[in-house]
C-alpha cells in the first residue's frame, strides 16, 4: 500500500487531477463519439479505448517529468521548499511558518523529507547537505 504521507500534498493533488482528467476525457469521448459515428458502433468503442490508451500514458509521463524537474529545483534550492505547498523558503529563517500555507517548518525537517522523497522517487542515494 502506498504511503501518502511520504508524498507532498501538492504533488499528490496534481496526480489526482491528472487521473481525473483521463477519466473525464474517456467519459466525454464515450458520450460524444457514438453521436458522430452512429453507423459504426464498433468503431466508436475502439476510438474511446484508443483515446484513453493514448491520454493516460501521456498524462502519467508529463506528471512524472514535472515531478522529477520539481525535485531537481528543490535540490538546487538546498531543500528550502515547503513540504505542504511548494513555496520557496530560501529567504526565511531556519524555522518558522510558511507564508503561503501556514504550516510550521524547520530546515532540518525539510531537508530530511525532501531528500527521502528524492531518494524514493529517483532511486538515488544522495544525502542532504550538512
Descriptive notes:
The protein is mainly alpha-helical and 130 residues long. It has helices spanning 9-36, 41-76, 107-122, and strands spanning 95-97, 104-106. Strands 1-2 form a two-stranded antiparallel sheet. The mean pLDDT is 75.
> Strand order within the widest sheet?
1-2
Largest sheet: number of strands, sense, barrel closure? 2 strands, antiparallel
Rounded Rg: 20 Å
Strand content: under 5%
Please count the beta strands (DSSP E, at least 2 residues each). 2
Task: Tell me the number of helical segments per DSSP (H or I, 4 or more residues long).
Answer: 3
Helix/strand-derived class? mainly alpha
Cα distance, first to last residue?
A: 32 Å
| Poorly predicted segments | none
> Into which percent range does the helicity of residues fall?
55-70%
| Mean pLDDT across residues | 75
3D shape: elongated
Helix/strand order: HHEEH
Secondary-structure blueprint of this entry?
Blueprint: H1 9-36, H2 41-76, E1 95-97, E2 104-106, H3 107-122
Antiparallel strand pairs: 1-2
Kindly list the characteristics that best describe this protein.
5% strand; two-stranded antiparallel ribbon; mainly alpha; 130 residues
What is the gist of this entry?
It is built from three helices and two strands. It is mainly alpha-helical and 130 residues long.
